[in-house]
Amino acid sequence: MRRFLSHHILADKHPSDSILPPVAGFPNLKFPEGFLFGTANADHQVEAHDPLCEDVWDLWERCQGLTPRGKATDFWNRYEEDIAAAAAMGCKLFRFSVAWARVEPECGNFDPAALAHYAELADCVRRHGMKVMTTLHHFVWPVWLERDHGGMIGPEFPELFARYADRVAEAFGEKVDWWITFNEPSQLTFGYIKPWWQNRYYMPPGLPRGSHVDDEAEAVGKLVPNLFLAHTRARASIQARRSEAKVGVNPLVTGFPTWLQMLLDWGACHRGMAEALFKFTTKGALVSERGDVDLVIGGITMEDQTRFESSDPYLRTGKAVLVPTDYAEADLSSLAGKKVGVIAIGNQPQGWKRDLPPNTRKHLFRNYDDARDALTDGKVDALYGDAFYLLPPELENRGRFRFLKTCLSVEHYVVLAPHGHTRLLDHVGLAVRDFQDDLAGQCDVPWLAEPDAFIGRSVRPVSLHEVFTTNESLPEHLSTGRGMRRVRRRGKVRIGIRTDAPGVSEKCTGEGLEVRLARLIAARLFGDESKLVIVPINPGDRFESLESKSSWLNWAWRFWGTTTLIANSNWWYLGMAGKLAKELCPSEAIGAQDFVGLDYYWGLPTHRLHCFRLLEDAACGRFLRAPVWSRGLYHALRRFHRWFPNKEIFIVENGCPSSAGSVSRADYMTSHLAEVSKAIEKNIPVRAYNWWSITSNREWGHPFDPNTDFGLHFVDLDNDPSLTRQPMPEAKLYAQIIAESYR
User: Pick from 337, 358, 474, 715: most CB atoms within 10 A?
Assistant: First the structure.
């Protein structure tokens, strides 16, 4: 019997020291009596937007041009439907979060109706035979906190958060079995870090424009101890209301080989070294790469790549379906069983799966010109792709076609440059502003049903600071940088534009918007639009034209920057174990936890570390490409049990979209549960497992598509006004595993 069993007896019978029978039909799965299977959601992702109670993510989505949550799944009104669905699968645990902005819409003014609503929600969970896990801070906080009190790095934050926790505990604390103070505190640092390979801050609030890496380090140095203090004081407030309350946190854990994780943990425990490495690897590219072109303006969306540096969006369009003018039908359902042309680049193939009837037949094309020719010749019945390229204003004989459907998504077009050309992109950003001014008044275009929602001023503020102060100014001085010097010595800027783009295509000879933007960039750089070389590139070769032989140097540079920032999420538990510097984790926070929680999604074994960009894809919402390594979950469970041998462990989140890295959702589920089972057999006290999530939801500003749908019950958030819940096959699989486990 392992050492921890002599000190800690699990509640509800957790006989991990005995031989457990396998789950029928799943020989690798063995779970003890009392093990809790559950599922979860989060307030901002499922509750409808309320303009009177906005949180910082509402503001961020709007000012950044991201997908707003809108009505989401309307969980605020339909919570019992989703809770009942979880119970019907056999779940014994349900996790939801409280919206701080609803509970405390103004500083010090708590809304009793909102508190009563969440109390009823908890009651509903209990009525359906499940235990309650409640999260107080799931990536969102009230706008007033950020605007008036400095947000999470302000000196008042720990006490303000503790006051909020106290009011929630007073309202319905006795109904909650486990409390989560901060969801994935390791991720909150990305509101204050913008490494050289990122164009924008990944999440709010961001730092003021022109902030240096030293400013980022200072902000993170305030955030981390504030999170520890806020958690500790909130825990004290909750337990003052109910002494037996169990409070913890669920950091996001990335699966890495043990040797690498130990190296990262060692570095995190040496603050000076960690801060120096942070500054060293995030302040700029190691080398300035040289491609065949300086920039590419090729219909590249923000969702396409992480290999290069990108500008602000210059144009917003969306997916659409094009048909001949004489096509008799009027809706997408008419395409069932018919052949639809899809451009085989970018995110078109993924969107096709989402937007068209499931039995539609797909035919791939290399460019839009060939696709339109096939539509004209009757070889396909319709075309699916970006509206701007399907039917641009410059297209000859465009009256042959019409749109069957527009506005199926939101696509943000950006300009790409090789790494090391940040200053060149600063000037591109100024040209994009000029370009947006040119577009003003040109929103009456025939290729969007609601053009004002897509074309217009799309230059984004860098931070919420700019939103509050209405200051969008760039720094007065833009340093030249190595990439800029090369371009200016040459006397011309080389810009790649795809061969089927208006202004380059033989079918669209009039000057297109992307050629116009290229001329504005040349004018910004040289004061002369003619200082421009347009390089036609095949649509499928857009990225290759930017690559260079020195890319591997920046690959290594980014690897260390990525691993030290993204992968080393253990800093929370290093602090709880008393291993961090006291400046980061105050002594009062050490050991201030009643259980160990973690979220686990992705990982890379040693032989796949060269694929670390896939982790960055996941960080940017491209989860279909995310790297799956279920063994990393076992390593994390074993590590945290070694650090905290007397604490129960909760897997607070684990899940994936329909597939990830070519692994199906069903295989993902069973392989990760097998690692949980293995850990239990090794006497690691894993108490619960939550699948993320119960339904489709809004994934933090990302477009809703197969990339971002983790739900066991599908909800067509964009096209179904009734928001019908449709069980997915994995819901049945999960229910089967649970049913067999509880026999």
Answer: 715
